[in-house]
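Re: Re: ligand-bound prediction request (bumping)

Still looking for help on this. To restate: I need the protein modeled with coenzyme A bound, output as structure tokens. Inputs repeated here so nobody has to scroll up.
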Amino acid sequence: MSRSPDVRLADVDETTLERLLALAMDDASPDEVTPPVGDGTGWNAARIDWFRAYHRSAAAGLDGPAREKSWAILCDGSPAGSVRLKRTGPDSVETGIWLGRSFRGRGVGSAALDLVLVEARHSGLRQVVARTTAGNIGAQRLLAAAGAQLTHDDGGAVSAAVVL
Ligand SMILES: CC(C)(COP(=O)(O)OP(=O)(O)OC[C@H]1O[C@@H](n2cnc3c(N)ncnc32)[C@H](O)[C@@H]1OP(=O)(O)O)[C@@H](O)C(=O)NCCC(=O)NCCS
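Reply:
Sorry for the wait, this slipped through. Here it is.
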């Protein structure tokens, strides 16, 4: 019987940032990890700059200037992906998550989302929202399993809300 992986969240210091970037470039699609910056294609220099700047500014946390916090997801001690929270209102945050492909499909995403919901609860927040697409069945299953109410719009977007 395979054991459940040990999943933890860790702050993104400079060493972890470079390990996360290497994982993202080797084992995830750029569109799963960054907005379509630069010419939009592949892991271009603008995407890499965005990735570093994003995690550095999110290091200050939900009450910092970016009002955002990111964590590395550690699976059995190794960086497996990242999860984030961003303030969207006085008691509401948005979340987003990505994992390297080799870490998907064995409960790591669910465990990391549960941990970030605990972080949100500890910060006194009442609601966590997320957005995905109608085609992203993995993300919808992950969010539904965490207790999210899913709403589909006509344009193919799916909104999720978890009341804490
Ligand atoms: C979405 C993502 C984080 C899920 O993480 P994961 O570790 O693979 O998910 P888990 O193994 O914890 O599975 C969670 C649930 O989703 C289901 N699931 C996961 N991937 C799936 C897929 N590709 N197709 C169908 N169901 C899937 C699992 O069966 C499980 O469902 P259950 O609880 O009803 O049994 C991961 O696939 C990923 O990084 N995708 C690319 C980035 C992305 O889409 N992020 C989401 C933006 S909101």
